[in-house]
Amino acid sequence: MLEALAVLGYAISYLGNLSSSGVVNVGGQIFMLVLCLLLAIWQGSVAINFFKGKAFTRAPIIVWQLFQLILSVSFLSSDIAMVKIGAVVSILVAGASIVLLFAPKTTAFLGDRPAQ
């Protein structure tokens, strides 16, 4: 849920900078804004269903975390220190999330194995 809120926060920040000129034209900027909003809604939906104990949520969570890992590794080559720190934090969060998805208590909560 925190990642969904972070993506929503990024979309709101992006909306504030929508009028500034950049490499991407206005159509592309609006597409990116809509894409970020849809991703935030999707992540929020997955988080809510995960907290309800729906087992199908594991796959979209893993896909998102792997996507996050791939992007974070590419950000490690940046010259900006804050970007590198953010990338390392993102890698740690994604790695911990993937490991915790297969923890015995999580699989019991999702109904994959009986509670012990």
From TrEMBL:
Membrane found in the keyword field: yes
Transmembrane segments: 30-51, 58-76, 82-103
Domain of life: Bacteria
Entry keywords, A to Z: Membrane, Transmembrane, Transmembrane helix
UniProt protein name: Uncharacterized protein
Naturally occurring in which organism (per UniProt): Glutamicibacter mishrai
Lineage, broadest ranks: Bacteria, Bacillati, Actinomycetota, Actinomycetes, Micrococcales
